[in-house]
Design goal:
By secondary structure, the protein is α/β, with parallel strands linked by helices. 32% of the residues lie in helices and 27% in strands. Strand 7 and strand 8 form a beta hairpin.
């Protein structure tokens, strides 16, 4: 119940960054004392700042329409996707979620490479529809209109499958928390995709670092590799690397790997 109320408070405050305790209590249909207690908890997690009689949302991550977001930071996303492409080999089974950086990766897949891809992304599935060498599995569920994807109705259904790699995205990324989303429904879908993969690779551009979303989709310990661009905060990347994650930082100006923390022996990235 507490998590649901926290999520609802963040949802309300994304529409109005500053709100009074009284207004929140009315919208949540609870007492002002309950609202104050929940805001104190959210303040301790650095999501909001309490002031006398009102609260302010801190650094909210944008819940942007898919086609708007796909045009943002396009150069960085393409450079990240080109690094990710090195991990893909013929006959692999791959999970790809609905992020716009992953959509860049999908457009780079060779037409002649046989692959099996599990994706909730309707945009991604459509892009792959002309490639007869790629088998595409779309889980059943309900459409998420903002990011043009399917929210998996029964995450357990995916447990019958196995994938070599899951390429994942997120709304925001924090250290030590990991990857975050705005809603629990998106979180469940992403966890389901990641759970069936032997290797989990998170793709995120610099704009996703150290901003706030409420629902933790993937912990740092869930990740094997993180690929980002050179505008990402190096100090935070270093802290994430201390947890044992392989982190690759690419320069989108020339696609050169600028930093590579914890490189594995079999890494295709040099």
């Amino acid at each position: 119940m507490k998590k649901e109320r926290h999520a609802r408070i963040i949802e309300i405050m994304q529409n109005q960054n500053i709100i009074t305790i009284k207004d929140l209590a009315q919208q949540l249909n609870c007492t002002e004392m309950t609202v104050r207690r929940n805001l104190d908890e959210l303040q301790n997690m650095n999501f909001v700042k309490r002031e006398r009689g009102y609260a302010v949302l801190l650094q909210p991550a944008k819940d942007t329409d898919y086609y708007v977001e796909s045009g943002e930071h396009e150069r960085e996303k393409r450079a990240i996707a080109e690094v990710a492409l090195k991990y893909i080999h013929p006959s692999q089974s791959i999970c790809m979620d609905s992020g716009t950086t992953i959509q860049q990766l999908i457009t780079m897949l060779p037409m002649t490479m046989p692959l099996s891809i599990i994706t909730p992304s309707l945009v991604g599935a459509l892009a792959l529809s002309d490639n007869t060498n790629i088998q595409v599995l779309i889980p059943s569920g309900v459409m998420h209109h903002t990011n043009r994807s399917i929210l998996i109705s029964d995450p357990e259904w995916l447990s019958q499958y196995r994938a070599d790699i899951a390429f994942m995205s997120c709304r925001s990324f924090r250290v030590p928390g990991g990857a975050f989303e705005h809603s629990q429904t998106l979180t469940s879908t992403k966890r389901a995709l990641a759970s069936i993969a032997q290797k989990r690779i998170l793709l995120l551009d610099y704009s996703k670092w150290n901003v706030n979303s409420l629902c933790n989709s993937l912990k740092l310990s869930d990740l094997n590799i993180l690929i980002t661009d050179n505008k990402a905060p190096l100090e935070l990347a270093s802290k994430a690397a201390e947890k044992g994650i392989e982190i690759i930082i690419v320069n989108p100006d020339n696609n050169v790997i600028q930093e590579h923390f914890n490189p594995s022996e079999d890494s295709p990235v040099k």
